[in-house]
């Protein structure tokens, strides 16, 4: 048994190395072709032509080439193509099942393309983001992005885009809202447009969607006809992705009509193509259906083998942490957009004030020159000036109050809704543990882990609410928050001494924004937790000092240390680096075996 396992691992490793070598060969070949082009526009055009050919088949090559193209576009300050390459990177990570990474690149692309005015590339991005939220089972959010894309395409009379969005949004109505009538209307509209355009690829997709819709409403004759038509079209095209989807749809049809052996044949054909293009999502789904077919056939050994394959793939895909990361990224982007709108409004008010003061000055000069003749008019102008200044002051106060009310409202919603729900989850887990007792230690352990995760999430939620409720966070606020954290930490790690030291030249009134303050606290918290968990330290020091005109934050321990090059960086270290970047800083990590670890970063005041 061990020999078989070793042979299996060797076989998998050989396949992985072969795939890596093939990917690198593709990347090198395309880069050589592009480097032969002298003009930047020609380089970008040739690169994007190649990406369109490989992005459905070789995700790793697409990521490497897109990152390379992104650097080319940055040198030329080409925002449109920066956004396009970021979109390709996000698309490829999504197809690899790394949905959290995909969302990071999608939102970076969104911030560039929404300002660019390029409706074609922005429409493609909206479409990709809608598909991402479909996979995350957030249909309302998916339809929001589909509607944005459709509006762009209709304004440009882009028939291909209109047809594609009708197909994909129809799937949302079909799968998430069970509105088969609306879904059918959209699929048929897409088919008419693609037939008008004589687009074989588009016709194939529309026929497949119609066939699956008929299957759900149990019109089996029409369903099989549509799916077989789509299959014949796709066999003539060099499109492994579309053919893979068609095999899966036929597998579902024959499963529904109790032809289980034939159903499994189509699912297996789909898996061959899915493995070829490294599309984990569809493999997971196919194995789930194959398991059901074998159960129906009474072949439980095969069913068990398929179920194991499904579980391996499922564990690698959409975990709770990935879903949380996507929501964090979405929230950051939407919050940034709101704050940007407020800043634009304040800029307009400042500009308006400038013109008002200029006009008033002109009136005063004219009034002085003709004081004897226009005294009454000057007095009237002065009254108007005072009224305008009063209105502007009141408007500014009102805007600030509205912003604070919005922050308080969001904080209350977070506390009352999400906080209450998490507390209910913790209570429910404790109740389940009480009834299970010692019957299943493994289950008790998992429930304890879930409960701990929920408690940590509540604490993070409280820290976020703390930051949102403050218009500015001072060094004194940070000191108080860090002190609370230290006291709680000491309860679980009583053998480790923790000290917080603030240099005498650091003013307690130094102020940060809520987002800056939260990022500083999170980095210190994560660095201290890492020292607790892994360093086996006897003493931890948290230092805040002045460095020129900036503030320096340090977390030092006397633990066992480590070599950063010899460890796999986890989410904690990556998150600290991202937060430092958001502070326009760089996280520096110094560690030696047996000599402890120091984490530091600098924030400009």
UniProtKB/TrEMBL annotation:
Matches recorded under InterPro entries: HATPase_C_sf (IPR036890), HATPase_dom (IPR003594), His_kinase_dom (IPR005467), Sensor_HK_TwoCompSys (IPR050482), Sig_transdc_His_kin_sub3_dim/P (IPR011712), TPR-like_helical_dom_sf (IPR011990), TPR_rpt (IPR019734)
Membrane spanning residue stretches: 354-374
Pfam families: HATPase_c, HisKA_3, TPR_12
Keyword Cytoplasm: no
Domain of life per record: Bacteria
Catalytic reaction equation(s): ATP + protein L-histidine = ADP + protein N-phospho-L-histidine
Annotated signal sequence range: 1-21
Swiss-Prot/TrEMBL TPR repeat ranges: 123-156
Residue ranges constituting the Histidine kinase domain according to the UniProt record: 413-605
UniProt feature coiled coil, ranges: 326-407
SMART domains, per database record: TPR
Primary enzyme class: transferase
CDD domains noted in UniProt: HATPase_UhpB-NarQ-NarX-like
Its EC number(s): 2.7.13.3
Keyword Iron-sulfur: no
Keywords from the named record: ATP-binding, Coiled coil, Kinase, Membrane, Nucleotide-binding, Phosphoprotein, Signal, TPR repeat, Transferase, Transmembrane, Transmembrane helix, Two-component regulatory system
Identification of the protein by name: histidine kinase
Annotated organism of origin: Pedobacter helvus
């Amino acid at each position: 048994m061990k020999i078989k396992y070793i042979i299996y691992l060797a076989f998998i490793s050989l396949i992985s190395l072969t795939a890596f070598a093939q990917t690198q060969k593709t990347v090198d070949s395309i880069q050589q072709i592009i480097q032969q082009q002298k003009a930047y526009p020609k380089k970008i055009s040739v690169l994007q032509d190649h990406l369109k050919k490989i992005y459905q088949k070789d995700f790793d090559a697409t990521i490497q080439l897109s990152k390379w193209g992104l650097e080319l576009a940055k040198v030329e300050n080409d925002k449109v193509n920066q956004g396009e390459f970021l979109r390709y990177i996000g698309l490829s990570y999504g197809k690899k099942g790394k949905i959290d990474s995909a969302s990071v690149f999608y939102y970076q692309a969104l911030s560039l393309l929404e300002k660019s005015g390029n409706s074609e590339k922005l429409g493609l991005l909206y479409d990709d983001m809608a598909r991402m939220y479909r996979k995350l089972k957030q249909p309302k959010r998916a339809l929001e992005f589909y509607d944005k894309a459709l509006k762009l395409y209709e304004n440009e009379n882009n028939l291909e885009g209109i047809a594609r969005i009708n197909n994909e949004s129809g799937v949302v109505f079909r799968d998430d809202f069970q509105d088969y009538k609306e879904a059918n209307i959209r699929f048929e509209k897409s088919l008419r447009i693609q037939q008008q355009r004589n687009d074989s690829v588009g016709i194939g997709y529309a026929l497949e969607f119609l066939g699956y819709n008929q299957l759900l409403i149990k019109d089996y004759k029409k369903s099989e006809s549509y799916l077989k038509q789509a299959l014949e079209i796709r066999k003539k095209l060099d499109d492994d992705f579309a053919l893979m989807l068609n095999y899966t749809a036929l597998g579902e049809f024959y499963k529904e009509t109790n032809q289980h052996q034939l159903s499994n044949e189509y699912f297996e054909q789909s898996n061959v193509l899915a493995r070829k293009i490294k599309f984990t999502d569809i493999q997971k789904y196919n194995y789930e259906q194959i398991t059901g077919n074998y159960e129906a056939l009474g072949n439980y050994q095969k069913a068990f083998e398929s179920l194991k394959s499904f579980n391996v793939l499922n564990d690698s895909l959409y975990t709770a942490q990935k879903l949380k990361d996507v929501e964090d990224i979405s929230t950051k982007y939407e919050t940034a957009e709101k704050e940007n709108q407020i800043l634009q409004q304040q800029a307009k008010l400042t500009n308006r004030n400038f013109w008002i003061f200029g006009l008033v000055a002109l009136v005063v000069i004219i009034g002085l020159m003709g004081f004897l003749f226009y005294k009454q008019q000057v007095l009237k102008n002065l009254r108007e000036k005072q009224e305008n200044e009063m209105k502007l002051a009141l408007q500014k106060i009102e805007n600030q109050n509205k912003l604070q009310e919005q922050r308080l409202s969001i904080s209350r919603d977070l506390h009352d809704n999400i906080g209450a729900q998490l507390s209910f989850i913790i209570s429910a887990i404790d109740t389940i543990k009480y009834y299970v007792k010692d019957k299943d230690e493994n289950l008790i352990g998992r429930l304890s882990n879930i409960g701990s995760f929920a408690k940590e999430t509540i604490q993070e939620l409280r820290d976020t609410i703390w930051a949102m409720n403050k218009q500015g966070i001072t060094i004194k606020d940070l000191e108080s928050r860090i002190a609370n954290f230290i006291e709680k930490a000491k309860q679980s790690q009583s053998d480790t001494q923790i000290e917080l030291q603030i240099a005498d030249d650091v003013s307690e009134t130094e102020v940060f924004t809520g987002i800056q303050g939260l990022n500083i606290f999170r980095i210190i918290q994560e660095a201290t937790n890492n020292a607790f968990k892994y360093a086996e330290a006897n003493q931890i020091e948290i230092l805040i000092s002045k460095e020129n005109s900036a503030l320096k934050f340090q977390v030092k321990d006397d633990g066992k240390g480590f070599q950063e090059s010899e460890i796999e960086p986890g989410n904690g270290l990556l998150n600290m680096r991202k937060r430092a970047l958001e502070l326009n800083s760089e996280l520096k990590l110094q560690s030696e075996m047996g000599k402890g670890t120091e984490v530091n970063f600098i924030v400009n005041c």
